[in-house]
Design brief:
The complex is a heterodimer.
Chain A (H helix, E strand, L loop, with lengths): L1 H8 L3 H69 L3 H24 L4 H29 L3 H10 L2 H140 L6 H40 L4 E4 L1 H11 L1 H6 L3 E4 L6 E4 H17 L8 E9 L2 E8 L30 H11 L3 E6 L5 E8 L4 H6 L1
Parallel strand pairs in A: 2-4
Antiparallel strand pairs in A: 1-3, 4-5, 5-7, 6-7
Helix pairs in contact in A: 1-6, 2-3, 2-4, 2-6, 3-4, 4-5, 4-6, 6-7, 8-10, 10-11
Chain B lengths: L7 E5 L3 H13 L6 E4 L2 H10 L10 E5 L8 H10 L8 E5 L4 H10 L3 E4 L4 H25 L1
Parallel strand pairs in B: 1-2, 1-3, 3-4, 4-5
Helix pairs in contact in B: 1-5
The chains are: A alpha+beta, B alpha/beta.
Chain lengths: 504, 147
């Protein structure tokens, strides 16, 4: 039993539901069975009562018949003693009643073959008796009372009546025996009913107990898991804090790594460029030497040497220089990003409308040069955040918008903003050349660019924007289609807090 | 004691290439002062403080200091030079690859006289070195007066 209980404790919700459903169905079935048993018992009772009534009817009918018989016999004897009209009347009534009495008895006992046989016998005896009685009464009517009296003692009427009596007695006995049998049956069915009821009651009690135990187990498990949840919930805070500090450490590590790597990469680069310049400088006397040699002894320098000094080496130097310079720019970008990541954020209240105007004014010349216009919405939501970072983000976004305008279309750049709950959304929209949707995620990666590469740049601006946005607990995304302009959507917390930074 | 004592240039630079480039540019700028080159901080400090010909015991010096050294940080050397004793007035030129504002600030706070970022743009680097030559000729004057 205990192991079964323990099993309840580990029930899954589905198993539990199935179990409760089964138990309830079982209980219902038991109730239905009990009801059916009660109904059956009632029907049996009704049946029994009907048979009881039937027995009494039969008994009554037999008694009625016997009464009529006695009356007839008594009237005949009365007539024998004193032939009055009154006796005569009773006799007539009696003889007339005997036939119907037997008929009724026959109808009542038609289902019982033994009784039926007795009734046939009865009918015969009564007919005989009635015949004899009528003959005797006929003699009296003729005034031959003495003959009638004589005949009375000889005709065996007394025996006949006695036989009829015993016959009816037998019938009564049989009917009573039947009744007794039915009583026994009735008692049996009542017994069966109670036994069934007992079994059902036990079953119901068992179902009830199991349901109760299951529910109890389940609720205990529920409250236990609720308690566990509560504990988990409480420890979650600690866990988050722990993870946060882990993340912070990892992030710091990466920042430091990026810094050291990029810093140390610059060192050899200085050498490459420096000595390239030395090479370049060394070329000058060589070049002069060739010129002088050509003058003094034409034909001394072959074309191969001349081409090497005047074309091949300068070309090689040019490539080395431009590649190293590009490498330097990339390293600088990584350095800048890593430095930005290490910078302490100093949140302050920012009037974003003013800030956006400042950014727009900073680009005023270029915008005017391109014949574009920039529009800043009247009321941008104010936030508390790091001024430098926000300025950097906004100016990078607006610069990008200016940089990638669609040629031949008057540029229009719009800066909008609104609040959603505890966040501020800023949008920089342009009608420029747009960004292919497949590049929307890519453009925020470092050194990745999209579209025709006709503008200077290393693919750093948006990477920087995203790094800054993340740092401030914000997000940045882009909605655009080729040729239809782009909208950059910056979502920032209204109030910068240290935790937001990491959880975002 | 001679009034004209040439300034020794003490170059603390672990990268041989850089050292060579710096030297070449110094020479090209027309500066003929002696250059003592050290590739690590320990030997450089030993020279600065203990060597008979070093600036502590000998003549005036100018320190060209790289911040990334294998055995110690250049800022430690800078702090040591500027923090105490006889070398306090020795001009220190920090020459490094970092253009980190915080680092530059720190060097100036420690008393560095000039901070030069080793630029990859070689022309401006050479120009900076030439200006350093000019600087060298200027600092010789107070040295002379100090004697």
């Amino acid at each position: 039993m205990m192991s079964a209980f323990q099993r309840f404790g580990t029930l899954s919700e589905r198993q539990f539901n199935r179990l409760v459903l089964t138990l309830m169905s079982l209980g219902f079935l038991a109730l239905i069975a009990a009801g059916t048993a009660a109904g059956w018992l009632m029907l049996r009772n009704q049946d029994h009562t009907r048979w009881l009534v039937h027995t009494y009817q039969v008994e009554q009918q037999i008694n009625l018949f016997r009464l009529d018989l006695e009356r007839t016999e008594t009237a005949r004897r009365g007539l024998l003693i004193e032939p009055t009209a009154r006796f005569r009347q009773v006799f007539d009534q009696g003889t007339r009643a005997l036939g119907p009495d037997i008929d009724r008895l026959a109808t009542l006992t038609s289902d019982n073959s033994a009784q039926y046989a007795d009734i046939a016998e009865l009918r015969r005896r009564v007919a005989e008796m009635a015949g004899v009685a009528r003959a005797s009464v006929a003699l009296i009517d003729q005034g031959r009372r003495a003959d009638a009296l004589e005949r009375f003692s000889l005709d065996g009427s007394v025996e006949r009546v006695r036989a009829i009596r015993s016959l009816t007695e037998r019938m009564l006995e049989r009917e009573r025996a039947l009744l007794l049998e039915r009583d026994r049956q009735q008692r049996d069915s009542v017994h069966t009913f109670f036994v069934a009821l007992g079994i059902l009651a036990v079953l119901l009690v068992l179902v009830g107990i199991s349901s109760l135990v299951a529910i109890r187990r389940y609720t205990t498990a529920l409250s236990e898991s609720r308690g566990e949840l509560k504990t988990l919930n409480e420890s979650l805070e600690d866990l988050v804090e722990e993870r946060t500090s882990d993340l912070k450490r990892a992030n710091d590590e990466i920042q430091r790594f990026a810094y050291i790597v990029s810093h140390d990469l610059r060192s050899p680069l200085v050498n490459v460029l420096g000595f390239t310049a030395e090479l370049d400088a060394a070329l000058k006397p060589l070049d002069a030497l060739i010129s002088r040699a050509d003058e003094a002894a034409p034909g001394l320098i072959d074309d191969q040497s001349r081409i090497a000094v005047r074309e091949d080496v300068p070309e090689a130097i040019g490539f080395i220089r431009s590649s190293t310079q590009k490498m330097d720019r990339l390293i600088n970008a990584i350095l800048k990003l890593s430095r930005e990541g290490r910078r302490t954020i100093t949140p302050e209240p920012l009037d974003m409308t003013q800030l956006a105007h400042g950014v727009a004014d900073g680009l005023h010349h270029r915008i005017a040069e391109l014949g574009a216009e920039i529009h800043v919405a009247a009321e941008l939501p104010a936030i508390v955040s790091d001024r430098l970072a926000i300025e950097q983000i906004m100016s990078n976004l607006v610069e990008n918008a200016v940089k990638y305008l669609q040629p031949g279309r008057p540029g229009r750049i719009e800066i909008r903003g609104h609040r959603i709950g505890l966040r501020a959304i800023f949008e920089v929209q342009d009608n420029g050349r747009g960004i292919d949707p497949k590049d929307h995620a890519r453009i925020f990666d470092l050194f990745r660019r999209s579209g025709v590469q006709d503008q200077p740049g290393e693919g750093i601006g948006l990477a920087h924007v995203r790094a800054l946005a993340y740092r401030l607990g914000g997000t940045i995304d882009c909605a655009s289609a080729l040729g239809e302009g782009a909208t950059f959507r910056l979502s920032l917390p209204l109030r910068y807090s240290e935790e937001q930074k990491v959880t975002s | 004691m001679t009034k004209e004592q040439p300034v020794t240039i003490v170059m603390i630079e672990d990268d041989e290439g850089h050292a060579r480039l710096i030297e070449k540019n110094i020479r090209r700028a027309g500066i003929s002062n002696a250059i003592r080159h050290f590739v690590d901080g320990t030997s450089a400090l030993d020279y600065l403080y203990n060597d008979q010909n070093g600036p502590t015991h000998g003549g005036p010096a100018l320190v060209l200091l790289d911040l990334n050294l294998p055995d110690m940080s250049g800022t430690d050397i800078l702090a040591r030079i500027k923090g105490e004793g006889v070398l306090k007035r020795t001009p220190v030129v920090v020459l490094t690859t970092t253009d980190d504002k915080v680092e530059i600030q720190r060097c100036y706070d420690l008393g560095c006289n000039v901070y030069i970022t080793k630029p990859v743009n070689y022309e401006s680097f050479a120009e900076a070195i030439r200006q350093l030559g000019l600087f060298l000729s200027v600092i010789q004057v107070p040295e002379v007066e100090a004697e």
